[in-house]
Amino acid sequence: MNNRRRQSAANFESRVREIGMEIFEHAEDARPQVWQKAWWLDRVMGLLDRDERLRTRAFQFVDCLPTLSSNAAIACHLAEYFDPERYSLPRAVHALFGTGWLRRWREDVVGRTARFGARQMAGRFITGYDMPSSIQMIERLRSQGMAFTLDVLGESTTSRQRAEVYAGIYMELVDRLTRMAREWPVIRLIDEERIGPMPRVQISVKLTGMDPHFDAIDPERSIHNVADRLRPLLRRARDRGAYVTIDMESSKHRELTFELFGRLMMEPEFREWDHIAIVVQAYLQEAENDLHRLLEWRGKRGSRFGIRLVKGAYWDAEMAAAVRQYAKPLVWTEKRQSDACFERMTRTLLENADLVRPAFASHNVRSLAVAIAWAERLGVPRNAYEVQMLYGMGDPLKAAMVRMGQCLRVYCPYGDLMPGMGYLIRRLLENSSNEGFLKQSFGLRASHDRLLADPAVVKPASAASPARFYQNSDAEEPMGEFKNAGNTSFTSAENRKKMLGAIQYVHGERGRTYPLIVNGQSVSTKSWFESVNPSDPEEVIGQVAQARVVDVDAAVTAARAAYLPWRMTRAIDRAQLLRKVADRLEMRRFELAATMILEVGKPWREADADVTEAVDHWRYYAEQIERIESRPRLRNLPGEDNMLTYSPKGVCAVISPYAFPLAILSGMTSAALAAGNTVVMKPARHAGVTAAKLVEILHDVGMPAGTVNFIPGPGATVVQYLIEHGDVNILAFTGSHEVGAGVIRAGAIVRPGQAFIKKMIVEMGGQNAIIIDDDADLNGAVQAVIESAFAFAGQKCSSCSRLIVLDEVYEAMETRLKEAVECVPIGPADQPSTLVGPLIDEEARRRVQDYVEVGRETSTVLVEARLPAECEKGYFVPPIVFGDVRPDARIAQEEVFGPVLSMIRAADFDEALDIANNTRYALTGGLFSRSPAHIDRAKREFAVGNLYVNRKITGSQVDAQPFGGFRLSGTGVKAGSPDYLLHFMDARCITENTLRSGLVPREEKSTVS
Amino acid sequence: MNNRRRQSAANFESRVREIGMEIFEHAEDARPQVWQKAWWLDRVMGLLDRDERLRTRAFQFVDCLPTLSSNAAIACHLAEYFDPERYSLPRAVHALFGTGWLRRWREDVVGRTARFGARQMAGRFITGYDMPSSIQMIERLRSQGMAFTLDVLGESTTSRQRAEVYAGIYMELVDRLTRMAREWPVIRLIDEERIGPMPRVQISVKLTGMDPHFDAIDPERSIHNVADRLRPLLRRARDRGAYVTIDMESSKHRELTFELFGRLMMEPEFREWDHIAIVVQAYLQEAENDLHRLLEWRGKRGSRFGIRLVKGAYWDAEMAAAVRQYAKPLVWTEKRQSDACFERMTRTLLENADLVRPAFASHNVRSLAVAIAWAERLGVPRNAYEVQMLYGMGDPLKAAMVRMGQCLRVYCPYGDLMPGMGYLIRRLLENSSNEGFLKQSFGLRASHDRLLADPAVVKPASAASPARFYQNSDAEEPMGEFKNAGNTSFTSAENRKKMLGAIQYVHGERGRTYPLIVNGQSVSTKSWFESVNPSDPEEVIGQVAQARVVDVDAAVTAARAAYLPWRMTRAIDRAQLLRKVADRLEMRRFELAATMILEVGKPWREADADVTEAVDHWRYYAEQIERIESRPRLRNLPGEDNMLTYSPKGVCAVISPYAFPLAILSGMTSAALAAGNTVVMKPARHAGVTAAKLVEILHDVGMPAGTVNFIPGPGATVVQYLIEHGDVNILAFTGSHEVGAGVIRAGAIVRPGQAFIKKMIVEMGGQNAIIIDDDADLNGAVQAVIESAFAFAGQKCSSCSRLIVLDEVYEAMETRLKEAVECVPIGPADQPSTLVGPLIDEEARRRVQDYVEVGRETSTVLVEARLPAECEKGYFVPPIVFGDVRPDARIAQEEVFGPVLSMIRAADFDEALDIANNTRYALTGGLFSRSPAHIDRAKREFAVGNLYVNRKITGSQVDAQPFGGFRLSGTGVKAGSPDYLLHFMDARCITENTLRSGLVPREEKSTVS
C-alpha cells in the first residue's frame, strides 16, 4: 500500500468512527426507559444470557408454547422445562418469583402468565396476527418515518395446499396494502428513489413456502413448480405497484433461489421490471462470488433490481450441519469474518449503485457506519440505497437512522405464532447471542471504540470455532478418530451431472454376466438369474450366476483354507486393506449408487446414502480392529498381568438383504474380515449385480483369494446349506423374521463333527411406530413421517408402519398428512426427485397389495397417493395411509415392507406407549414431542433398539447410532457400534504371573503384537 | 522427654555417628579396585540400575538360565529377552558390545558368555556347588577372621523325597564340617562367647524345605511332619556340636515356624540345648510383638538361645500379595519404618543379652552402628552378640567389622544354581534396589550424614507406597472402584477355630428341610431329595423339596409379575440390595463354606474361595449396573444427542452346577438381578442346601417377593420345561457340554406366542491342558499342576486334564510329578489339609472310574495315589496320572471331571500348541515357560477362553480374570467381566434431534435417570 492509499484508508476509518459515534449518540437518546415494556423485555433477555442451560430451556419452551392448548398443559411443561430439581436455575429466577413458585402457583396462573409473557415477546417481533393489527403497526412505522417490507411467517411447507394458502395471503396483502397505500402521505426519504418513486408496499417472500419439494436434486422440476406459483404473485405485485424481495434461506436452497430468480426475471413479462430484489448473505464464504455473478447477470438483463445485503440467520444450523458431516463449513466460522465480508460487499454494492439498488440489513453500528461512509465517499445519494432492520430489534438504532436522515426499512413478519416460531427463535437467538452486536452494544456496554473497530484487523476474543460443538460430556470412551463419510450434495450441478452420467453408464452395462467367485476364481454355472430394473422390469441389469450346493461347499472349503493366513495377518494390515475398499467405494460411488438405483429401485439420495454407509462400515471396523488389538483391557496387578483380548472365530457366512444392497452387505462382510474371519457371501437374489461390484473391488484392492467367496444363488438351497454346514462358525444374517428364526433354529443344532457352537448374528424385521405427542411440531413430524414411511417405498427394516397420534392432535395430523401424501414424489428410481420408487419384484408387489386389501377391509383409507403414468411398467404400489387403525389389526402387527402406514389414535401418552410397545418386534421407533417428561419416559420405556426423538426413524449413522433391535427383530447385536466386532470374535483372558523368584517387574507390559 | 534424657539421646546419636564414620573409613579402604572381579560386577549392576525394564529382563533371564541346556537355547533366550527391536536397551549396552551384537555373535559364543557371566554372578553369592569348594570358601572366610553359617539352597519342596534329600545334605554337612572343624585354629573373636566356646560349625535351615505341606491351615499335621524330619538333624547337630538357626520365610509360615520352634525346644531332649536360634523380621509390623513373645517364652524354657534380627527379604512379594488382596500389608510400607523398628529391637535384644544371644544381620551402616553403640552403652561385651552379613554382599563392610573387632558371621548359601535361583534373585534385587542401603552407600555415594540419619525422624524421600503397583498402563477404561473380597487367612488360629465351629454347626443342621420358594412363599412338595455328605454319604445334610412342572409354571408366572416393578426400581436401589446380599454372605461366610464342605465335598480353601467369588459377583454387578446406567456411551453431535443404553430383558432362568454351588449360582443370579431381570432359580441337584441358604439371604435383605423364585428339582423335567417355556427370556446355564448343547438347541426354537429370541448364556465344559516348556520352572509347574488337576478332585470346568510336556523335560517332570502325587493330601473335605476330596456322588465316581479303566487300557499309569483309610466311606477316587498318553485318546479328549491327568509328550513347542488346541473345547489352558517368544505365541494362538501363564489354571478372579470359553465350552460370554451384564440386557440407541427452530443447545445433556 503506498502512502497516499494508506492515508486515504486512515481517513476513511476515522470517518467511519465519526459516523459510528453519531449513531451511538442518537441511539442512546432513544434507549428504552424503565417505564417502557421494552426495558423489561431487555431485563428478561439479560437473565437468560447468564445461563446457557436456562436460555436453551427457555427457547425450547417458547418453541413449543403455541401448541399447548390448555393452562394445565402449559403449567405442566413449564414444570418439566424448569423443574428446579433437575435444572438448577439461576438465583435471580427464584429471587424474582420466590423459591418453589413452580409448585405453589395455580395452574391457571402459570398458564396465563406464560402465555402473556410469550405473547409479549412475540408481539415485540411480529407485527401482527391479522391484517388489521398488522396494517396498524405498519402505519405507525410510517408515522415514525420508517418504510416496511412485509414477510408472511411460514417456511418449508409440507403440502401444495399449504403453499397455496401461503401465496394467497401474499396476494391478499398486496391487494389490501396497495389499496390502503393510496391514502398514505408521501415521505420523501422513503418513498422516492433516485430514478423515481419507490413502491410503498413491499413484501419479502420465502421460496420454501411456495412448494413442498423445493429441492436442488431436481432443479428443473423445483423451479418449474415454484415459478408457476410465484408468477401470479409477481404479476399482481407488478400490476399493483408493489416491490418484491425474494428471501434467501439455508444454503441448500441458495443456488436454486438464484437460478429461479435469474430465469424468472429474464422472462419477457418481468425483464423490464425493476421493483424486484434478491438477497446475498455475507456469512457465506462464497458471498462475494454470489454478488459478482449477480452484477454480471445485471449486465445481461439490462434493467435494475435490488440487492439486500444481510449477514445471515442460519449460522447455528449451517455450522451444525457442517460439523456433523465433517465438512468444511460454507459459512465463515468467525463473526468478524462475516463482518469484514459484509463491509467489502458494501463497497462493491455502492460502487454499483447506479446499476442495482443496495439495501444494507444490519443492526451493527460499525457495518452501518461503513455503508454511510462509503456512500459519502463514492457520492451515492441517500435515496439510492437503504438501511434495513428487523421489527422489534434495535429500536434505538432505527430511531438514530431516521434522525440521521437515512432511508430505513423495517422487516415486518406477519402471521400466527405457530408457523412463525422458527423466526421468533432466530430473533431471540440473535438478540441474546454473545456474538450479536446488539447484545454487545447495549447489553454489555462494551466500549464504543471496540465496537467500531475494523473487523478485518481485529483479533477474535473467543472465536466461535467448530471445536466447541465436540462436547462429548461424560462418555466413557474418548471420541474416536472415526469420521462418517459425507453424502453427495445434490445442490451441486456437477454431482447431479455425475449421477446422470453414472446412470447412463449402468444402463449401458446391461447384459453383463457376473460369475461366482470361489477362492479367487470365477465360476460360471449353468443357471443364471436375470436381475432386472424394478422401475422397468424389461430392462435386465445383469445376469448373475447361481451357485449349486457343490459351489457352496467349495466356497466354504476355500474360506477355511484362507482362514489361517488371514487370521495371522496383522490387524493393521487387515485394516489397511479394508480402508482401501472404502476408498474404492468412494471412487466409484456414483456408479455404485446408479447400480442400486437401477437394480433395486433405490431413489437417488437413498442409493447415495447406501454407498456412504458402506464406506463407513469398511472404515469403522478397520479402526475398531486396530483399537481392539492395540488397546486390550488390562487389569495389571503387582506380579500378575491380566489382559482381555479377542481372536477371530473362523468362517463367516454373510447372508444379506436387498434393502441395503451395499451397506448391510458391507457391514457384515467388513466386520467379519476386520475380525480376522473369512467370508462366504450370499447376497440378496435381486441385488447380485451390486454385490458383484463390491466383490470386484475386494479383488482390486488385493484381498487374498478365498478370503471372500461370492456365491449368489437360490436362498432355499444355498442359505439352508450354509446354515447347516459344519464348517461355518458364524452366521451373519439380515433379513425377514421368518427366515431369521429358521437360521437361529437350524444354526443352534451342533452337528456331528462340529466342534463349536455357531455364532448367530441375526437382524430381522420390525413393525415400527412413531408417536405424535400433543405438543409435537406437526410440521416437522409430517415431513419425518413421510420420509420414514415411504422413502424407498417403505422397504427398510427401519421404516415406519404405524403412526400413533394423540387424540388431541389426531385430526390436525390427519389433515396435514393427507395433504402431504397427496403430493409425495412417486416415480422411477432414476428420476432424481423420486422419494417413492417401485417395490423389488412382482411377488413383493402382490404381497403388499394383499396387505392393502386387508387394510381396506378392516380400516378406512385416509389417503392413497396416485401413481403417475411413468410408473405403469414397474412394480409400483402407491403410498397409502389407513386411518383409525385398531392397534391389533394385521397391518399394524405384521411387517408389511411396503409404503403402507397405519394411523392409530391414542387417548393419552400412556396408551400411545402401550400401543407402540405392543408388537412382537422392537427395532426402531420415533417420538415427536416437546415434553421433557414424555421424552424421558420414551427413552426409558419405548422398547426398541433404535429410538429417534423429533426426527425420522430411518438413516442411522455408523458409530453415532449403533443399529439393531431385539424381541423378534434380532439377537440384540448393534451394527456400527464399538462392540459389533466382538460378536465376530472369541474373548480370551490372558493371565500371566509375572512374579519370578519373588521379583515383581516394574516395567510396563507390552501387549500382544 | 526431660532434659537429661534429651541430652542422653543426643549423646547417643553422636556416638552412633562416630561409630558409623569409623565403619565407613574402614570400608572405604576395603573397596574393590578396578583390577578386581568385584569392581566389574559392580559396574554391571550399575548398568542394570539405570533401566527398570532392562533390570527386570536381566533378572528374568538369569532366573531361567540354569534350565537352558544348550548354547542355542541360551542364544535364543538372550535374543528374546533383549531383542533391541522389542526393548530399547540403554545405549551403554550397545556401546559395550557394539550395535547388533545379538545377531552378530555366534550361538556358542553367546551361550558360553552368558553362562560364564551367570556363573560369575552366582559365584559371588553362593559359596559352592559342592562340598569341597564350599568348605574351601568357608576356610578362606575363617582365615579372614570371619565365622559362617551354612544354608543349603532349596525351599518350598514339592515332595517328601526332595525334603529328605534336603535334610540329608544338612546331615552330611554337619558330619563333614564338624569333623574338619577340629583342625581349625581357634579365633577367639568368633569362636568364643561370654559363657564358653561358640560352635564353629553353624547351619541355617528353612522349614519349607522339610515338607511339601508345611501349611498353616493344618498346623498340627504340618508341625508333626516337619518336626519328625527335623529332630534327627537337630540331634546330629547337638551331638556333633553344631549350631542351628531356623530361618524365617514368608509371613504365611511365620506363626507356624515360631510354634514349631517353641514346641521342639521345649521337648526334654532339646530344652537345655542353647546352640539353637530363631529369626525375627523387623520389616513386619508385628516384629516387636514377636520378639517380646520370644523373650517371654525364654523365661518359660529357662535356657539360652539365639535370636537373629533381620529386616526381611520378601518385601516385594509380601507387598504384592497385600495389594492384590486389597489387604493391609503385614510389612512396613516404608524402608525407614523397618530401619527404625530394627533399631528399637536392637536395643531390646541387647538389654536381654544375658538371656539370649543376639545376632544383627544387616548391611546398613547406621543399623550396625546403632547395635554397637547400644552394646557399649548397655555394657554388653563384644563376645555376647554378633553381626551377620550375606556372602558376596558388602565385602568392604565385612572387612570393616573385622578390623573394628566385631564378631562377624557370614551367611553362606550352598548348592546348585537351579534351586537357588530364588535366593540369587533376592540378593540381586537387594543389591540393585534403590531402597537398599548398600546401593546408597557405595553406588550413589550419598553423603555419610544422610546415611547415618536416625530413621525414626527422617522424612521419606520417595516412599515405597502400595500406590506404585496400581499401574493400569494404557487400558481403555480407568480402574474401577471394584475390589475383590479377600479369602480367609487360615494362618490365623481364630479363623481356623471359626471354620471348625461352622462345620460343627452345619453337622448339627442335618435333617433340616428346604422348601421351594415361589413368589416369596414356601412351597413344600411331596417329593424330597436327600442331599448327603459325599465324604460320608450316611450323613444327610438336608432335605430339599423337588419342584413339579406346576411349580415351575408358578415360579415363571411369579417372576413375570415381579418383573415390571423390579425393572422400574432404580439401578442404584437394585445395586444397594445386591451389596446387602454380599455383606450377608460375608457375615455368614464360615457357615456357607462349611455347608459346601459338607454338601459337595469342597476342601476348606476351595469352599472359602467359593464364598469369596460369590461375594465378588454380587458386588461387581452392583457396581457394573450403576456404571452402565450412569455412564451410557454418548456420541453427541451439534443438534443431535446419541446415547447407547441398556434395558433388562424379562425373566431369567438360572440353571447352575454343583461345582461352584454358591459362586456360579451367585454370578448368574446377581447379573440377572442387577440388569433388572427377575429370576427362576434351579440349583444343582446336589447343592440344594447351599442354594437354599443363598435364597434365605435374598429374603433377609428384602428382595421383593417373586424377584427370585427357588425351584430345585429333577433336571430332566424342570430344566427341560424352563428351556421350552415361552415366558422365559434368558437361559443362563452352566454345566456339562451335553446338557448345554441341548439347552441351546431347544432354546433356539421360537415357540408359538413367544415374542422374542431367547438369549442363551451357556457355559459348558473343558478339556484343559497345561503346556510345560523346556525352560519352565519345574518346581512351580508341579505345584500348579497338582492344584489345577486335583484340587476338589478335579471337579471344576477349569481343571487341568492334560499335561503336555516338551520332550526335553518330560522325564524330569515325570519324576517330580510322580513324587508330588504320591504325597498329595487326600481325605474327607472337612479335614483342613485336604486338597483332594470325594466326588459328588456314586454315579460320578463310577463314571470317573470307567475313564480310569479306559486309561489303563490305552495308556500306562505313571502314578496313582493311595486312598487313606478315612476315605473308605465317601465317593473317593484316588488321583491318577497316565503317562505318554496319545493326544487323541479318549481320556485326553473327553471331559472327565475327576482327578485324572493325562501326560502327553510333545517334540517341540509347535507340537505342544497343536496338541493343546486339538480338542473340541476351549475353556482354560496353561503354559509354564520362560521364553518370551513362546509366551507371546501362546497368548496369540492358545485357543482357550482363559489362558494362564506360569500359574495354576483354576481360580479366576472376578473383574481381573473374566471367565468363559468358546468352541464347545460356551457361548463366549465372559462372566465377571464389564460386558457380562450386557448379555442380560437389550441395547438401545437413543437419538434425539435437539435442534429446535434452528437452535443448537449448548447445555450438557443429562442422562436418563
Descriptive report:
2 copies of one chain form a homodimer. With 1009 residues, the first copy, chain A, is an alpha/beta fold. Chain A is globular and about 100 Å long. Chain A contains 35 helices and 32 strands. The longest helix of chain A has 27 residues, at 3-29. Helix content of chain A is 46%, strand content 15%. In chain A, helix 17 (365-378) links the parallel strand 8 and strand 9. At the A-B interface, helix 3, helix 15, helix 19, strand 16 and strand 17 of A face helix 3, helix 15, helix 19, strand 16 and strand 17 of B.
Summarize the structure.
The structure is a homodimer of 1009-residue chains. By secondary structure, chain A is of the alpha/beta class. In chain A, 46% of the residues lie in helices and 15% in strands.
Write the layout of secondary structure elements.
2 copies of one chain form a homodimer.
Chain A: H1 3-29, H2 37-49, H3 52-64, H4 71-82, H5 91-97, H6 101-104, H7 107-125, H8 131-143, E1 147-152, H9 160-181, H10 188-191, E2 192-193, E3 196-197, E4 202-205, H11 219-240, E5 243-246, H12 254-264, H13 268-271, E6 276-281, H14 287-301, E7 305-310, H15 315-324, H16 335-351, E8 356-361, H17 365-378, E9 386-390, H18 395-403, E10 408-414, H19 417-432, H20 437-443, H21 448-451, H22 493-508, E11 513-514, E12 516-518, E13 521-523, E14 528-533, E15 536-545, H23 549-568, H24 571-587, H25 589-599, H26 604-630, E16 633-634, E17 640-648, E18 651-655, H27 663-675, E19 678-682, H28 688-700, E20 708-710, H29 715-724, E21 730-734, H30 737-747, E22 759-763, E23 768-772, H31 778-790, E24 800-806, H32 807-822, H33 842-858, E25 860-864, E26 880-883, E27 900-906, H34 909-917, E28 921-922, E29 924-928, H35 932-941, E30 946-949, E31 966-967, E32 985-993
Parallel strand pairs in A: 1-4, 1-10, 4-5, 5-6, 6-7, 7-8, 8-9, 9-10, 11-15, 18-19, 18-21, 19-20, 21-22, 23-24, 23-29, 24-27, 26-27, 29-30
Antiparallel strand pairs in A: 2-3, 12-13, 14-15, 16-17, 17-32, 25-26, 28-31
